[in-house]
């Protein structure tokens, strides 16, 4: 049996292919938007995996350290280590900031992580170089920062040497991580600059209650405490094999006046709360792109149908059934959609690695996208089908 749709497509194949390519680029953008959301979720999970923690202990009444600001004293880790079921616990700090290259002064946005070597929070693997071995002024960076081994970078007031490179160590927002020793990170995040320290000392000395003539050493002790900072953002806890993380977290909440989150709870915070607004925004874009795609397909098929009204009338005049005519138009719409989907999938695969944020293209999303494209094209063809079915056979012999 002769394929009427195929013959018609071959008759105007250039217009059909160009339209399919344009539709394909739109479908590629749609697949990329879905990949951006998947990438955000994967970044959040990678952040939790890279921490190596089973439990996050943070400031009371906060959902830190990733979704909210959290600050607690670094000596709290000793009391957490003494809890039943705790295998290891370590302090950690997180600070998203601009890290400057010392060579050209270029700023790179990154999450600076302060950790204790050999403890939870340390990068799990390196792709080049070595781990940090000194207590100060060494750094391990994710390759997406663009830093190289031996390069000097500036964080706040100090220069650091990049001694190691790691991969896929990112924040929940997709910023690459730079790991430095905990003491340096505490100074970078919590310690004031030199001018602020001098002004604070002057204010303290001018306060009569803090600078009493009859209490020698009081002023010096207060000023020394102001120059030191013992705060961290969180305590990363690894539980013993077979221990339940929620069971370990309960006494932390009850007796330590701190908040504790298990892996499932922290993932819920990151995915369901931290990126929820971005997910809704991406969802709105996907709906708009689907509507635009349907409108394009409907317009193209409708225009092609109007251009062959006389031919459709001839088909009706020789006894062609309405179902056959409707099938021809539907096949053209589906063919247009399939061309567009192939072009879109190839385009999304090629341009996804160029995006500054991680784009995760999952096969399941591609399958769902194909089903959606077929459904949209079938729906969009109904307008042209209605026009074709209303054509009067007499138009074939009319003037």
Keywords:
single chain, 399 residues, alpha+beta, six-stranded mixed beta barrel, two-stranded antiparallel ribbon, 12 strands, 18% strand, elongated, disordered N terminus
What share of the residues does DSSP label as strand, in percent? 15-25%
Share of helix, binned: 40-55%
Q: Structural class of the helix and strand makeup? A: alpha+beta
Q: Compute the CA-based radius of gyration.
A: 32 Å
Query: What's the count of strands?
Result: 12
> What is the topology, as strand order, of the major beta sheet?
3-4-9-6-8-7
End-to-end distance: 31 Å
How would the global form be characterised?
elongated
How many alpha or pi helices? 12
Largest sheet, strands/sense/barrel: 6 strands, mixed, barrel
Uncertain residue segments: 1-5
Question: What is the H/E string?
Answer: HHEEHEEEEEEEHHHEEHEHHHHH
Q: What is the mean pLDDT?
A: 83
Q: How does this model look, in words?
A:
With 399 residues, the chain is an alpha+beta fold. 51% of the residues lie in helices and 18% in strands. It contains twelve helices and twelve strands. It has helices at 4-11, 13-51, 76-81, 182-190, 194-206, 218-227, 245-255, 263-274, 276-306, 309-317, 322-351, 363-389, and strands at residues 55-59, 72-73, 86-101, 107-115, 128-129, 138-142, 152-155, 158-166, 177-181, 231-232, 234-239, 258-262. A six-stranded mixed β-barrel has the order 3-4-9-6-8-7. Strands 2-10 form a two-stranded antiparallel sheet. Strand 7 and strand 8 (158-166) form a beta hairpin. Helix 2 crosses helix 11 (322-351), helix 2 packs antiparallel against helix 12 (363-389) and helix 11 packs antiparallel against helix 12 (363-389). The protein is elongated, with a radius of gyration of 32 Å.
């Amino acid at each position: 049996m002769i394929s009427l749709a195929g013959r018609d497509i071959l008759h105007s194949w250039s217009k059909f292919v160009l339209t399919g390519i344009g539709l394909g680029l739109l479908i590629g953008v749609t697949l990329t938007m879905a990949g951006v959301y998947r990438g955000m979720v994967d970044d959040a999970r990678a952040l939790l995996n890279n921490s190596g923690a089973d439990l996050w202990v943070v400031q009371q009444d906060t959902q830190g350290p990733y979704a909210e600001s959290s600050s607690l004293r670094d000596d709290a880790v000793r009391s957490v280590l003494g809890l039943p079921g705790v295998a290891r616990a370590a302090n950690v700090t997180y600070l998203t900031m601009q890290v400057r290259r010392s060579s050209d002064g270029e700023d790179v946005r990154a999450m600076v992580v302060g950790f204790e070597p050999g403890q939870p929070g340390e990068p799990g693997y390196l792709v080049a170089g070595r781990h940090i071995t000194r207590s100060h002024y060494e750094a391990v960076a994710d390759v997406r920062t663009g830093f190289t081994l031996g390069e000097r970078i500036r964080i706040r007031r100090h220069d650091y040497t990049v001694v190691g490179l790691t991969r896929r160590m990112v924040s929940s927002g997709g910023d690459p991580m730079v790991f430095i020793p905990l003491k340096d990170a505490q100074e970078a995040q919590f310690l004031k600059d030199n001018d602020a320290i001098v002004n604070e000392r002057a204010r303290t000395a001018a306060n009569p209650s803090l600078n009493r003539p009859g209490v020698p050493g009081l002023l010096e002790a207060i000023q020394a405490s102001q120059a030191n900072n013992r705060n961290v953002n969180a305590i990363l806890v690894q539980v013993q094999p077979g221990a339940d993380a929620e069971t370990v977290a309960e006494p932390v909440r009850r007796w330590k006046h701190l908040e504790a989150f298990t892996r499932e709870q922290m993932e819920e915070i990151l995915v369901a709360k931290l990126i929820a607004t971005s997910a809704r925004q991406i969802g709105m874009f996907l709906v708009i792109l689907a509507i635009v795609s349907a409108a394009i397909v409907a317009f193209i098929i409708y225009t092609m149908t109007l251009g062959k009204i006389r031919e459709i009338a001839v088909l009706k005049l020789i006894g062609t059934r309405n179902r056959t005519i409707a099938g021809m138009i539907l096949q053209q719409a589906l063919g247009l959609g399939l061309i567009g989907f192939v072009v879109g999938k190839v385009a999304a695969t090629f341009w996804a690695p160029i995006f500054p944020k991680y784009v995760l293209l999952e096969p399941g999303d591609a399958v769902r996208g194909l089903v959606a494209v077929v459904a949209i094209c079938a729906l969009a063809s109904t307008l042209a089908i209605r026009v074709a079915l209303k054509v009067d056979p007499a138009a074939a012999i009319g003037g």
